[in-house]
Amino acid sequence: MGARPRPHNASYTALSLLVHPMAPSFRQIRWHKLLRWLGILALAWLASTWLAVLVLRFVPPWTSAVMLERQFSAWVHGDKDFRLRQHWVPWKSISPWVPLAMVAGEDQKFPYHHGFDFDSIDKAIDAADDGRRLRGASTISQQTAKNLFLWNGRSFVRKGLEAYFTVLIELTWPKRRILEVYVNIAEFGNGIYGVGAASETYFHAAPAQLGPAQAARLAAVLPSPRRLHVDRPSAYVMRRANWIQQQMGQLGGPGYVEGRAPPKPKH
C-alpha cells in the first residue's frame, strides 16, 4: 500500500508559514542584540579609559598599576621587609636635568615622535630576525602607559593595550605632562618609585637640587632598576651614566625635552 497523503490541514499550514519563515529572523535578532551590546561595551571602554587619561592630565596619580603589582607580589611571597616608597613631585620642583637625562638615555626622539619610534621598532625586528639580542624599542610614552595602566610582561594582549593607552596619552597630554608622570612613577630601585623617593634615598637631596651627573646616574639604571644600583654603581652603570651625560650635552640642554632646542649634529 502506498503512503497515505497527508490531509490538508489549514491550521498546520498556517503554523508552518508562521514559524519557519520567522526562524532566521529570530537568529538575526539575537545577532543584532549581541552586536549592539558589543558596540555599547566598546564605547563604554573607550569613554572610561579616555576619561581616566583625561583626568590624569591634571590630577597626580596616587599610584600606578606596576606599583600595585609589585606590592601585591611582595605580599603573596611573604616579603615583609618590602616597603614601597613614592611621592609626587610637580614639574617645577624637579631639576631640569632629570627629564633631559631620561630622554637622553631612553628616548632621544621623544619631543618629536607621536608615541612610537618606528625606526627603533624596525631595528629591533631586524636584530631579532638575525638572532641577536632583543633590543628594547619602547618610547617614554609607551613606558608611561605601561607603568600607569598595565602590568609587566611580554604578551601580545599587553602590548596591544600598551599601544592603545599610548595613543590616548599622546592625544590628550602635552609632552611635559608625559615626562612629569614618567619621572614620578618610574622604578629606580627595589620599591623606590619616582624621582622624589629616588633623590632622597640615594642623594639625600630634593629633586630640584639634582645635577647632571646625578640625573644621568638615575637614568642609567632604568633598563633594570632591581639589578643595577644607583647608590652602588657598577662599572657598567658608570659607563652608561657618562654616556648619558655626554648625550645630554649633545642634545643641547634641558630645553630639548620640549622641542625648544634642536639636537646638535653628531660627527
How is this structure best described in words?
The protein has 267 residues and is an all-alpha fold. The protein has two domains: 44 residues; 198 residues, Biosynthetic peptidoglycan transglycosylase-like (Penicillin binding protein transpeptidase fold, Orthogonal Bundle). Helix content is 57%, strand content 2%. The chain contains eleven helices and two strands. A two-stranded antiparallel sheet has the order 1-2. The protein starts with 9 loop residues before the first helix and ends in a 17-residue tail after the last helix. The model has no long low-confidence stretch (mean pLDDT 85).
State the gist of this model.
The chain is mainly alpha-helical and 267 residues long. The chain is built from 11 helices and 2 strands, in the order ααααααααββααα.
Q: Main beta sheet, described?
A: 2 strands, antiparallel
* Secondary-structure arrangement, i.e. CATH architecture of the largest domain: Orthogonal Bundle
Content of β-strand: under 5%
Instruction: Give helix % range.
Output: 55-70%
CATH class of the largest domain: Mainly Alpha
Order of adjacent strands in the largest pleated sheet: 1-2
The secondary structure category is mainly alpha
Uncertain residue ranges = none
CATH topology of the largest domain, by name, is Penicillin binding protein transpeptidase fold
